[in-house]
Amino acid sequence: MGQIASPSQLRMSFLRWALVTVPLIILLGVASGELSGSGYGNAWFADLRKPDFMPPGYVFGTAWTALYALMGLALAIILGARGARGRALTLALFAVQMALNLSWSPLFFAAHRVTAALVLILVLIVVVMVVTARFIMIRRSAGLLMLPYLGWLIFAGMLNYEIVRLNPDAETLVPEAAGTQISL
Predict the structure, then answer these.
(1) Is 90 exceeded by the pLDDT of residue 175?
(2) How far apart are CA 147 and CA 143, in angstroms?
(3) Are 91 and 131 in contact (CB under 8 A)?
(4) Cα dist from 105 to 13, 21, 87, 122, whole Å
(5) In a designed cystine with 36, which of 110, 123, 149, 160 is the match (CB 3.0 to 4.6 A)?
């Protein structure tokens, strides 16, 4: 008792945490997107004007899966940093950023609140900056794993801004109803 953990014990602790955090965060992200009807299959979204730099739909699924995996690894590193100063607050801030992240798709795709989604993503960017800085203070590697996520959020914020700018009527836009024409 009272002994410092060996490097192999620390690796095993990280792996145990990662086996939980990586799939959990990916699952939460996928669930948020699926339940809110996110993506190009959403009729309302399909009707919006998009910026020229909008990537094809498959890029979003691939990017978010990779980013959620990186976030899960970063979280596993912090969870394994028992006794680190500020760890509890950092984990609470991570939970806040995760809740904000998971709220964006329902707000944008399901509620069609593009302006509110833009405000949300701007707040999310600030919170993720704080979380990333705190992760770096606890374990540099965990903070570095958060940097691609932060970069993608900034890109997503630019996309959201352009959609707001190009679609001033987005929040009242109703997609054309799919119907069948039968002529006799």
Answers:
(1) no
(2) 7
(3) no
(4) 33, 21, 28, 14
(5) 110
